[in-house]
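U., I forgot to send this yesterday:
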Amino acid sequence: MRRWAFWFGLAVSAVFLALALRGIHLDALFFNLQRVKPSWILVGICLYFISVLLRSWRWGRLLQPVQPLSTSVLFPIVMIGYMGNNIYPARIGELLRAYVLRRKTGVSISTTLATILIERVMDSVVMLGFVLVGLQRVPALSAQTGRWLLGAAAIFGLALATLRWVAHAAPTAERTIALVLRPLPSARLREALLHVARRFIEGAQSLRDLRQTVLCIGATVTLWLIEAGKYLCVALAFDLRLPFDGFLLITGLSNLLTVLPAAPGAVGTFDAGGILAATALGVRADLAAAYVFTLHAALWLPVTSTGGLLMLREGLHWADLRRAQAAELAT
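Result:
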């Protein structure tokens, strides 16, 4: 892994963490943390694991044209991938997830990464929708921000439409990619990249079936609504009561900012997005910070610890992260 990516992500996290904590008195922050009710956090954690189960089911739908796999097989792999994202920079967990799936089932890494990309596009469209709904609670932010978000939603929608075209017109897409690669001087490199492209196109085949596409989009909306329920539960642990569309805003904005390169676990970016949304909804800055930091810990710790245990059960080692990187272009 390139050192510059690690240090750049660390710098981004530091900047966003400083923005998140700006003007907040630490004594007030700690006072709010001491008032938390753990029972509500446990309920929220249970909801989060349900959402991960649904993510695993959705991934199975996307992989079905390549190899039918049950949710029980995919759930541990998803958890291991999330653990990798939480402790390593540059979202290495996505690559680790593809590596573990190849090791267990033989599905190529490039094919798996195509399905993960489809997941990310669907997630982003839903998060943008959540923010647009939640912005109705904060008219001062709605006008300009709404226009930017509608533009972003259009871009992600176009990306999903492009992936669906690639799935429907695989031979045309392959010929187009071959033409783009033709100027490369090395025939060996051209063939290697074309091979990866073929595997990627194979991973997008689930989008050929309109019913499967609708099911996956419906699952995406549902799992994020369940996850927003976790955000609500953690808020109740602080006796913080907001309308549900306010939690949609917090869910959407905190997760949208995690697309920025940052330290492992989206430290800083997630927190800044959540605190910005909560304070825009009228929550005091110190209470918003205590809530979002607790929420982040409740998202990070259960998945990371469970993923680590599942990694050991699968007989994986930290060296497999390096093997995953080395195998990125392998079949």
